[in-house]
């Protein structure tokens, strides 16, 4: 079978052996898999988390089951979650599921960008394979994981109705945060980026969002215009949905006293920042990193999709076949005319 493999900052499509299916495992034919910002960081940057596998947002259909599998059948349309926690360790007891050792070590084989995906017994036993409702197509299903991550981010910062929100980064997850923040009752949303295409794209999704291109304005102008829109206090919450460290630094000045910042975008490994710690202390800013999602947010996302409460499919701008995986990743990295990119197979 064919699979995308990361080799020295380039993704190559290689022929590898089809995984053998154990009695407690399932083999899934990949139909759609989204490209994530973390995939781009692995290929073009310095990814700081443990996994180097490419593609972790897959959906597909079951083609083979182990002899002990009774809850699924061949042909079932499924979403595959690559990481699953144990639900019984100290971290899980404290609802820090993504910090669970099993969560960070578990994975699918070989990756999401492959013709076939082996779902191990651990993932199956902990709810990492979920049958899709009939009204969710494969493209939509490929959005489940990133939307779930955004749900967790907003849950951690306790977004309240009528809150003012500043979002740094107008990429796919930035816009997912925007859509969800509006759904949860945000009164004002400021979206900040350096990419005009993406800012204009966001306005088509939400005409009431205020957009700012910080590439064409000085720092004092940005701060003045931000405060004018958000109000003298600044934003109640800020979401840093980019790995750009300048966005995090800007959020410290724009977020109000007592406000909360979600550090959502994965900072490159070995990132160092020179900031005035007294600013954080004196403003009592709460900075909450948000990494990945648990099955709780996965099921919440599926529920929102099934009920057709929010439509995220307009975020998809491009689809590439599996053999063009590197081209797709490069297109997403350049971001000249793209939002969410989906890889398809089968």
Automatic annotation (TrEMBL):
GO BP term, example: protein tetramerization
Q: Where is the Enoyl reductase (ER) domain?
A: 8-343
Specify the domain of life of the species encoding this protein.
Archaea
Which enzyme class, named as a word? Answer: oxidoreductase
Record-annotated membrane-spanning stretches: none
Q: Which residues form a coiled coil?
A: none
State the InterPro entries in the record. ADH-like_C (IPR013149), ADH-like_N (IPR013154), ADH_Zn_CS (IPR002328), ER (IPR020843), GroES-like_sf (IPR011032), NAD(P)-bd_dom_sf (IPR036291), Zn_alcohol_dh (IPR050129)
Per the entry, which co-factors are needed? Answer: Zn(2+)
Q: Which GO terms describe its molecular function?
A: adenyl nucleotide binding; anion binding; L-iditol 2-dehydrogenase (NAD+) activity; zinc ion binding
Keyword terms of this UniProt record: Metal-binding, Oxidoreductase, Zinc
Task: State the similarity comment.
Answer: Belongs to the zinc-containing alcohol dehydrogenase family.
Protein name in UniProt: Sorbitol dehydrogenase
Native source species: Candidatus Nitrosocosmicus oleophilus
Q: Which gene encodes it?
A: gutB
